[in-house]
Write a structure and sequence with these properties.
The chain has 9 helices and 14 strands. With about 325 residues, it is α/β, with parallel strands linked by helices. It has 2 domains: about 15-145, 3-Layer(aba) Sandwich (Rossmann fold), CATH 3.40.50; about 165-310, LD-carboxypeptidase A C-terminal domain-like (Glucose Oxidase, domain 1, 3-Layer(bba) Sandwich), CATH 3.50.30.60. The strands form 2 sheets. An 8-stranded mixed sheet has the order 6-14-13-8-9-10-11-7. The chain has a 6-stranded mixed sheet with strand order 2-1-3-4-5-12, sandwiched between helices.
Length: about 325
C-alpha cells in the first residue's frame, strides 16, 4: 500500500445515504431490520443491496451477486458510504471479482469486521483507500449499540479531529503490554483467521512497518498458536512495528485436556519479537468495540499508556 496513493473517503454526515451489503453469510432478517432502523433513527438514509435479501447455503447469494453489489455501491453517486450486514464466511471468494479501479475512482467509507477483513485489506492495499474495522448492521447495530461503540464509530467516520487514544469500555480491565516499547506506523489488521488464510496469495497482508491489530472469536488456544506461528514463519509478525491484540472473546479453553491460556500463547509467540505488543483491547467480537481505520498513522507507546490514532481517516 505504501506504493499506492492513499485515499481518504468523504466524511459521513446526517442525511447521507448508506448502502448495506452482505458480502459473506446471510443475516437474521429481524436483526437486519433493527440495524437499518437504528441507522435511520440517527438521520441516515439507508439503501439495502440485492445481496441483503438473498440466501444460498451459507452465502448471501452467488459470488457474482455479492461482488456486483459492492461494485455497484461504490459506483453509485447516490451512495455516500457502505456498511456490511454481517460476517460469517464468503468474502475471500470475492477478491478476484471486485473492480479495484472503480473503487479507487469512487472512494467511500467502507465498514465491517470478522470475515470482512479480507475485503478491508484487499481494498486498502490495492486502492489506497482507508477502510474501517468497525460495527456491522445485523451483528451490532441490530442488537443495540452502546455509547462507547457509537462514539468511536462516529469519531472515525465523521469526526473532524483524529480519533486519539484508544481506551477500553467502562467497567472493563484496561489493556496491558505484553512487551513494552514505542512504535509508530499505519494501522492494518483484522481477523486472525482471515489474515492467516490469505497468506501465500496475491491478497496477503502487508505488515512492513505497520501497527498490526489482530482479533478472533471462539478459537481454541492451540489454533491461535498455529495461526500466529504461521504468521511468524511467513515473516509477517517480525515485519510489523508493533502489535495490538483484542480480548480474543471465547477463546480460552474450558473443558479441553490441559491447555495454555490465550494470554500464555500470546506471550510465548509474541514476546521475543522485540516490538511493543498490547493486549486486551475491545475491537473485535464483543458488544463494545472501537472502530479502527486501516491505513492511518498510529502510535503504540507503553510509556504513554497504549494505542493512539494520530490522524483523521476521512476528508471533507
Amino acid at each position: 500500500m505504501d506504493l499506492i496513493h492513499r485515499l481518504k473517503p468523504k466524511r459521513l454526515r446526517p442525511g447521507d445515504t448508506l448502502g448495506i451489503v452482505a458480502p459473506a453469510s446471510p443475516g437474521d432478517r429481524e436483526l437486519a431490520m433493527a440495524g437499518i432502523h437504528w441507522l435511520e433513527e440517527i438521520d441516515f438514509q439507508v439503501r439495502p443491496g440485492l445481496s441483503v435479501e438473498q440466501t444460498l447455503g451459507y452465502l448471501s447469494g452467488t459470488d457474482e451477486v455479492r461482488a456486483a453489489d459492492i461494485n455497484a455501491m461504490f459506483a453509485s453517486p447516490e451512495i455516500d458510504g457502505i456498511i456490511c450486514l454481517r460476517g460469517g464466511y464468503g468474502t475471500m471468494r470475492l477478491l478476484e471479482l471486485l473492480d479495484y479501479d472503480l473503487i479507487r475512482a469512487h472512494p467511500k467509507v467502507f465498514v465491517g469486521y470478522s470475515d470482512i477483513t479480507a475485503l478491508l485489506l484487499s481494498i486498502s492495499q490495492r486502492t489506497g483507500l482507508v477502510t474501517f474495522h468497525g460495527p456491522m448492521v445485523a451483528s451490532d447495530m441490530g442488537k443495540g449499540v452502546s455509547d462507547y461503540t457509537r462514539d468511536s464509530f462516529f469519531r472515525a467516520v465523521s469526526g473532524f479531529e483524529p480519533p486519539g487514544p484508544v481506551t477500553n469500555p467502562p467497567f472493563t480491565l484496561p489493556p496491558a503490554f505484553i512487551t513494552p516499547g514505542a512504535a509508530q506506523g499505519c494501522l492494518t489488521g483484522g481477523n486472525l483467521s482471515l489474515i492467516a488464510a490469505t497468506l501465500g496469495t496475491p491478497y496477503e497482508i502487508d505488515t512492513c512497518g505497520k501497527i498490526l491489530f489482530l482479533e478472533d472469536v471462539g478459537e481454541a488456544p492451540y489454533r491461535i498458536d498455529r495461526m500466529l506461528t504461521h504468521l511468524l514463519l511467513a515473516g509477517k509478525l517480525q515485519a510489523a512495528a508493533g502489535i495490538v491484540v483484542d480480548i480474543f472473546a471465547g477463546c480460552d479453553a474450558e473443558s479441553e485436556p490441559p491447555s495454555f491460556t490465550v494470554q500464555e500463547v500470546l506471550e510465548d509467540r509474541l514476546y521475543k519479537l522485540n516490538i511493543p505488543v498490547l493486549y486486551n483491547l475491545y475491537f473485535g467480537h464483543t458488544a463494545d468495540k472501537v472502530t479502527l481505520p486501516i491505513g492511518v498513522m498510529a502510535v503504540l507507546d507503553s510509556q504513554a499508556g497504549g494505542l493512539e490514532i494520530m490522524e483523521t481517516a476521512i476528508s471533507d
